[in-house]
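Protein: L,D-transpeptidase-like protein
Species: Pelolinea submarina
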Amino acid sequence: MKIENINRRDFLKYSALYSAGLWMAGSRAGSKFAGLHKADTDASKLGRVLFDDISVFAQPNPDSQVLKTLMFNDLVEYRYEQAVQNSHPHKEIWCRLTDSGYVPYKYLQPVENQINERVLDIPSGGQLAEITVPFTTAVVDQYKQNQRVKEDQMFFYGSTHWIYGLGKDEAGTYYYKVQEDRWEDSFYVDATHMRLIAEDELAPTSTTGDQTKKVIRINLNEQYLVAYENERPVFMSALSSGQLTGDVDLTTPQGNFKVNYKRPSRHMVHTDRISINDNELYGVPWVSYFTDSGIAFHGTYWHNDFSQPNSHGCINLPIPAARWIYLWTQPVVPPREKKYVSNSGTRVEVY
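Structure follows.
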C-alpha cells in the first residue's frame, strides 16, 4: 500500500533533518508533524568521527580546499547543520565545525558527553543501561570461565547493555559488570559512563486505542517509514535498508509482516561485512524484529548515512527513532525482560 497522505513537498523540505536524526515527532505516540523544527544553531554540539581519513573542507563542497583530516573516534564540536539543496537532500548535509571548516554529517555520530552518578543497588536479574559518552572501554573479564572474547572492546554512545553488578578497582574507580547477550561474555565499564534506564522509561506508548489499527509502512525506494494509527500518520523517520553489494543480495524483503520479537539490546555479528566497523556490534539498541529470518528495526551508532541502503537487511534507524518504534509497537515488552516473542505484533508493510 502506497503512502498517500504525506505531503511530498513538505517531506522533501524536511527530509534532510529526518535523515540526520535531528527531528523526532515528539517523544510520545500520537504526536503530529506540527513538531517539525530546524536544527538549533545556538549551542555547540559534539560529533564522533565514524571512519578514518575524513576530510574537513573550507566550504560545504567536496571540491573546496581540504583544511585537515579526521580519524576514527576523533571528537569534533560543531555549531550547526547546513542542508545544501540538490536532487538528494541527505547527501548535502554538512556540519559547520566550531573552529573552522565543514564536514559531511554522514561521517559523524551526534553524541553527548554525559557523566553519571554510580548506582550501588543493581537488581539480581540485571538492569538495562545506555552509554552516555562518545565511547568507552569495556574491560574484558579475564577470570570468567568460557569467556569467548579475550580482548577489551569499545562501547559507543547510545548502545544499550545489561549490567549485573558493581565493582571497584584499586584506584577507587567503580565499574558496572556488563554481560553481553549472545555468548554471555563479561566486561567492566566505567560506571560514570552508563546511565541506568528506569522502568517508567520503558512504558509502552499509545496503548488506549485499537492496537490492530497501527501499521508501519516502509518505502524502500525513498528510504523512509511512516507509522499510522487509524490511517493517521503519527511518526516519520528516514532509514537505511539492506543493500545489494557485489554478488551478495542483502536487500530488505518486501511484503506484509508483523513485529514478532523484541530485544532492548542485542549483540549483533555479521560475517557478510559491508563496512569497516559493522562486523561485530555490541549493544545494538531497541531491536524490533518483524521477519522470522531476523530482519528488524534497530538503532544505529556505526553509521549516520540514512536515506541510503546501508544495512545487512535490517531497517537501520537513528537511535531515538528505533526507541520510538520499540515503545509504540506491539508486543509490549515487560521492563525486565531481555527478549519477548509474540505473534500478535504491529503490522509492517514493506514496498
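Remarks: Residues 39-111 form a domain with the SH3 type barrels. fold (CATH 2.30.30.40).
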